[in-house]
């Protein structure tokens, strides 16, 4: 290993690295080899107190900084992040196992986009003037205070930035807990923000397991909790936050449908299904894991998919020719293996892949199932791994009803060359982030988030501002006050 991914210390608080080895040790494992590459320690109560106190102090000052200056800090951070893209991508690859081919274009770059976007709109955030004849009301968009971010392990850098950029643009501070599985990159974001001019304490990183996340969700010093994680964790965090009436954003899981009609471009539909099932080894919340293909196209779709899957290159993730990496952890690999076995057991046809590789690390080849039916476990539960299920349908109405028959509602995609059908179908799909003849694009300019069991609130775009600020309305009376006595 040429690159040393070890962090300076576990936590980043009040503008400096902080270590406290009395917390529970968390080993950081390189998923491609299973090697332990670093150890961090879960935050103790003392570490958490330092983080909350410094965030509270910094937030009070930051709220007074002009929005234009706040924006400049974020924009500078975006620039530094882009300059360091290679080093950040290498670190992300060590943390997650995702191939460098991906991390170079989808992680720190996406984080930088968020910092740049919210940096750019910070000074355009205004209230409004509401005329009432002689009297009037004006509204002020105020920060919430200290926000807590809790991250999943699939896009660690992106998740930090998607939460922190709008939070800071609105005048909040952030205490962020990365997933225990991928604790490294958030620390680099902290270094960058400080270097870009963010005051010490504005952005803090604390490590830990679920119990540290739970402490963030319940601490009275925290005004808002933003979680990216699974639906069961989302329910727990939402309930915990309700105890203190905190604001929440919940970016949770999904079991999203992709509808491919007979008149779709076969190559585009297959390509999008590859992106929407196998990119990041399938560990993406919005993946279109239920691929409904119309009867006339299904056989050709499966055949072409199996053919293109032969081009998956499973190798050293640091080699830019590798385009498919390991699962993030031994646990995740076992979960995925369990689902593949269940698919076979329940009668789905495993057309390709789904094998564990006989090498160190957490490797499973991308799996293609045909003949999947709605009641099978692999069609109902979020797998969060490289398992694509093809389900056949005949009519548009049937496809829509079956696509919507899930407790989730994160994403949905439609492939057809009939534009009226595309819009008609999308209009009836119950999902927050939808695609027509494309899949899984997530530009910062567009709102991202789910409906139903997939979450609450939106990240990215101007919509995120509503979730990191609150309105104060001020009634101004110009005449005398008339009272009854
Ligand atoms: P988890 O729900 O297991 O964990 C998410 C985070 O919550 C982790 O940091 C975890 O800590 C923490 N946590 C666990 N329990 C609690 C608790 N009781 N209170 C507070 N925090 C807690 O998800 P994964 O990390 O396994 O990520 C995969 C999931 O994330 C999938 O369901 C996926 O769909 C979803 N996801 C959603 C996205 C979206 O934008 N909608 C994007 C990416 C992923 P610890 O690491 O110690 O467990």
TrEMBL record:
Q: Any idea where the Aldehyde dehydrogenase domain is?
A: 17-474
- Give the EC number: 1.2.1.8
Active-site residues are: 251
EC main group: oxidoreductase
Q: Identify the Pfam families for this entry.
A: Aldedh (PF00171)
Q: InterPro entries given for it? A: Ald_DH/histidinol_DH, Ald_DH_C, Ald_DH_CS_CYS, Ald_DH_CS_GLU, Ald_DH_N, Aldehyde_DH_dom, BADH
Keyword tags: Metal-binding, NAD, Oxidation, Oxidoreductase, Potassium
**Sample GO molecular function, one term:** betaine-aldehyde dehydrogenase (NAD+) activity
Q: Which Gene3D superfamilies match?
A: Aldehyde Dehydrogenase, Chain A, domain 1, Aldehyde Dehydrogenase, Chain A, domain 2
The record's family statement is:
Belongs to the aldehyde dehydrogenase family.
Q: What is this protein called?
A: Betaine-aldehyde dehydrogenase
């Amino acid at each position: 290993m040429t690159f040393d991914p070890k962090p300076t210390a576990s936590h980043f608080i009040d503008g400096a690295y902080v270590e406290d080895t009395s917390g529970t040790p968390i080993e950081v494992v390189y998923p491609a080899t299973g090697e332990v590459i670093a150890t961090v320690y879960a935050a103790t109560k003392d570490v958490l107190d330092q983080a909350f106190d410094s965030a509270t102090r910094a937030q009070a000052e930051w709220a007074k900084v002009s929005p234009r200056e706040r924006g400049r800090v974020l924009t500078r951070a975006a620039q530094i992040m882009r300059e360091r893209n290679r080093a950040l991508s290498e670190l992300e690859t060590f943390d997650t196992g995702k191939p460098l081919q991906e991390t170079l274009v989808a992680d720190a770059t996406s984080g930088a986009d968020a910092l740049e976007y919210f940096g750019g709109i910070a000074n355009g955030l205004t209230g409004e003037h509401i005329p009432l004849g002689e009297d009037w009301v004006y509204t002020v968009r105020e920060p919430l205070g200290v926000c807590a971010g809790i991250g999943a392990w699939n896009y660690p850098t992106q998740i930090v930035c998607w939460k922190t950029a709008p939070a800071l643009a609105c005048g909040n501070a952030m205490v962020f807990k990365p997933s225990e599985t991928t604790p490294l990159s958030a620390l680099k974001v902290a270094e960058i923000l400080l270097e870009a001019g963010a005051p010490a304490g504005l952005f803090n990183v604390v490590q830990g397991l679920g119990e540290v996340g739970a402490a963030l969700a319940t601490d009275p010093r925290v005004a808002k909790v933003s979680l990216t994680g699974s639906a069961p964790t989302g329910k727990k965090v939402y309930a915990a936050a309700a105890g203190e009436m905190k604001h929440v954003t919940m970016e949770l899981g999904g079991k999203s449908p992709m509808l491919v009609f007979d008149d779709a471009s076969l190559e585009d539909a297959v390509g999008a299904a590859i992106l929407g099932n196998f990119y990041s080894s399938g560990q993406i919340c919005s993946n279109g894991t239920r691929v409904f293909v119309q009867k006339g196209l299904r056989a050709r779709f499966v055949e072409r998919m199996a053919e293109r899957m032969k081009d998956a290159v499973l190798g050293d993730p640091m080699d830019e020719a590798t385009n498919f990496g390991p699962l993030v952890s031994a646990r995740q690999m076992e979960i995925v293996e369990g689902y593949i076995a269940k698919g076979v057991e329940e009668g789905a046809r495993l057309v390709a892949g789904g094998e564990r590789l006989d090498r160190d690390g957490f490797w499973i080849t991308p799996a293609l199932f045909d003949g999947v039916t709605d009641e099978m476990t692999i069609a109902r539960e979020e797998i969060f791994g490289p398992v694509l299920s093809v389900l056949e349908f005949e009519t548009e109405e049937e496809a829509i009803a079956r696509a919507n028959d899930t407790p989730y509602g994160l994403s949905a995609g439609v492939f057809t060359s009939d534009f009226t059908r595309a819009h008609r179908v999308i209009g009836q799909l119950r999902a927050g982030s939808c695609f027509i003849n494309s899949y899984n694009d997530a530009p910062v300019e567009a709102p991202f988030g789910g409906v139903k069991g997939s979450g609450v609130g939106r990240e990215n775009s101007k919509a995120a501002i509503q979730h990191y600020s609150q309105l104060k309305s001020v009634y101004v009376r110009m005449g005398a006050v008339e009272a009854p006595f």
